[in-house]
Every structure is written in structure tokens, then in C-alpha cells.
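Quick check before the chapter quiz. The format below is the same one you will see on the exam, so make sure you can read both the input and the output lines.
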Amino acid sequence: MLGALTACALAPAAAAAAGGPIESLQRSAKSLEPAPGDAFDDRGQLAADGCMVEQHEYRFPKCVYGDKRSRKTVVLFGDSQAMHWFPALVRVARERGWRLIGRVRAGCPPAAIRFSGRCDRWRAETLRRIERHDEPDLVVTGSGVVYGAIVGGRRLGSKASAKHLRKGYARTMRRLRRTGAQVAVMKTLSWAPNRIVSCVRDHPRKLRRCAFDRKQPTNRAFEARAAKRVKGARLIDARDAVCLKRICPAVTDGLIVYRDPKHLSATYARTLSNWLDARLPRL
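Here is the expected output.
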């Protein structure tokens, strides 16, 4: 048995099947999944299949999941903050009989801003492909980092960039809405400390040390503010599923929650499929 979430904590495999938000703080664990040494690479099937376009790349892999013959198409679009929802979303797609297309690129904001030549070209071409070929019924999008926008040939700081990201993300959402698709925007989660996985590795009997303040600064909420400006965009806030009222656990039911400061582990993200299913639109 694992250390106490309750008197009878679930084993990792059982926890993954159970799903649902975190309900209490796990203070110790005899085993962990993924193993701390493997957590950073626990990015899920989309990455394993080569469908995450890396920052130095300019390509458009064909990445289709779920029911490939379905008349209902869902596109996952954004940066790595979008990709870490794939393990939950693909389970929803299989359950609902959706065709799911992955269109994600590391370090590239979906917001319509000037950021870098290769990223900006990839975004423009990806949006054209979504409009002309994917014909989505739903686009699930995510973007969490305050990327430095280029304005007048100068790279802006985070505060000024957040304003441009908010406006640029709203423009992107409106463009996606014009395809006729519904748009679901994943709100950025609280960011974990830089050494969260190392903390779990070093203190498996004292996991309270590795929990962190839910109010950690994140990204100036540009994505939430953008979603509120776009008619028909649905904002999905998963903080209540991943965190308690004041703190965010590093481990729950023996599962490492974050693989690095800004991304969920794929192992944990899978457990949120039922939670996500309840919040996505019915197509």
C-alpha cells in the first residue's frame, strides 16, 4: 500500500483508472509513477509519435487519433502547454468517437504576434490547414508562457508582451471560430518550483515539502482574458482538478503530477480524462 492520501491510498495503476481531481494531500509514497528519473520524458503519445514539432523544426506531421473516420473532428492546437492535455483528450476522443488531430509546436505561441520567423510561419500555415483541411467541430487550444513579442523591431518585456499576447490570442480564437468550430481554451496551471521532481525523488516520505503555493506567478492570465473577449470561446480552468484550495501536491495516489515546472506528466494527465470530458462541449 502507498502512503496516506486516505487510510487506503490507491496503487498507481488504480489511480490512473480512477480519474478525477485531487482531494487531499499525499504525504508519503513507497512507489512512484513515473519513476522520478523518467518523469521529465513522460510527455505522452503525441511526443513519442513525433507529433510535437520542436523549436528548430518547420514541419507538419500527420497526427490523427481516435476514430479516424468520424464526422466529428477535434483539433488540439498550441504549444507544449496544449500538448500536456493530449493524454486526457485522446481518451475523451476515443470514448466519444471523435477524430482527433494534433497540431502542436514547442515554444511557439498560437497567439497572432510576431515572435520568431520559423514559429510565425508555422502558426500561419497551421491555421490555414485547420481552416482548409481539418474542418474542425472543436478546437482545444492552450498556451502558457509569456513569450516576448516583437514590436517595432524590439523584443518586449513580459508585462508589455502579455498585452500583445492577449490581443493576438483573441485574434486567433476569432479566426478559429469563423471556421464554425467551437473553441475550448485551457487555462494555464499554477507553475511548480524548478526542482519539484528532484524534491519528490529526495523526499518520498515527506512529500509535503514538495507541495507548492497554488498562487505561484504564472503568465499574467493573458489566455483567460483573451477567451473572455471572444464570443463562443469556453475557458476551462483545471486548477481545482490539479491543486487543493491553497497548495498544489507534487504527488497524488503515487503519481507524479508535474514532469517539470510547467507541464503535467502524461501519466497523471491521463487520470483527468473524465474531468475534462465533463467540461468539453457536446458535439
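If your answer matched, good. DSSP finds eleven helices and 15 strands in the chain.
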